[in-house]
Description:
Structural class: alpha+beta
Order of helices and strands: EEHEEEHHEHEE
Radius of gyration: 15 Å
Oligomer: single chain
Helix content: 25-40%
Number of strands: 8
Amino acid sequence: MKKPFLRSGHEVGYSVKTVGYGASFSKGFQPKENFKDFLNEFSEAFDMTNASYSSLFLSHFSENELILTINEGIFTNEFSELDPLEVEKNLKEIGYSDLLINFILEHQSELYGSDIIQFIAKEGQTLNIRTIDLEYGNSEFQVDL
C-alpha cells in the first residue's frame, strides 16, 4: 500500500459532498475509459484516518454513464508548498502513476471535488456539478467540455 498524501480540506466532522452528473440528476455523464483506475489510485492517495465515511467515492455506473458522488468538497495536499519538480519526485518515489502525478501537479495549490469529476469525463458533453453543503448551502454549475 502506498503512503497517502491527500487529506480533507475541511474540519473534522464537517460534511460536504460533490456530485457530478449529466443532463439531469438521474442521468449520468460519459467517463473516460480509465476512470476506475484513476479513482482507485486517488482513493489510495487519500488519508481516511479522520474521515466520517467508509468510501471516498460513491458511484452509479450503467450503460456507459456515471453519476459520481465524492464525499469531499476540497482536498489538502502535504506537498502543496513544495516546488513542482520536488512534488513529482516524491510521488514517483512513493509509486504513484504519471496520470495521478500530472493531475496533482495541475491542482497543486487548490484541489476540489469538481476537478476530479471534470478530469474523468470525456470531452464533448455538458456536466452538472452540485456541491451539497449543509452549513453554507448548496451550489450547482454547468461545465461544457
